[in-house]
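> Could you send the Ca2+/Na+ antiporter prediction when you get a chance?

Sure thing. Input:
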Amino acid sequence: MKEFEHLMSVWQGQPKPDKLSVDEALKQVKKGIRGITSRLYWGIVAMVALVVCAFIITFFFAFRSPATTTGILIILVAMLMYLSLIVRHYHILNKHDLTQNPTEYLNTLKEYQKNRSKVIGWFYYVFMLLISTGLALYFIEVLENAPLYFKLITYGSTIIWFLFITFYLKPRMFKNEEEKLNLMIDRLIRLQEQFD
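Output:
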């Protein structure tokens, strides 16, 4: 009997699962989404400015080599692809109000996360390939009269920069964003389970 009473006291002494405060959870999720949408917004602004600059360079500067123009056009296409992707992600995150229908918002957030993981994976490498190809073609004419050491430094530093972004910066950035999304989704799921 003592064992049963001890077992009951241990069982009853277990901490109860914390209930999330609805206001606090919604505030944290809104803050997280606002942070992501803010970065997307400024990414859109920066990309629009870069697209305008690339457009001006392509159509208002005279280049002798068609390779240079082709390189800039390839870069412009890559930037437009990236711009359309971040505008789409911005629209997905901004189209629903969290307080109106949390379940629909949770489903939208899950769909956004799944779509983002799938698209970002292959898109990043296509984007980097296009940018690299465009820069290589652009540098043909721009560095035509430069000394060999300057060409090597320019191409070498560009390659090192792309490798740094691809293998060091990209995984950390995406992992950080993925963790934030997972945290927001987890909070909404826990909140939803409280009311089911």
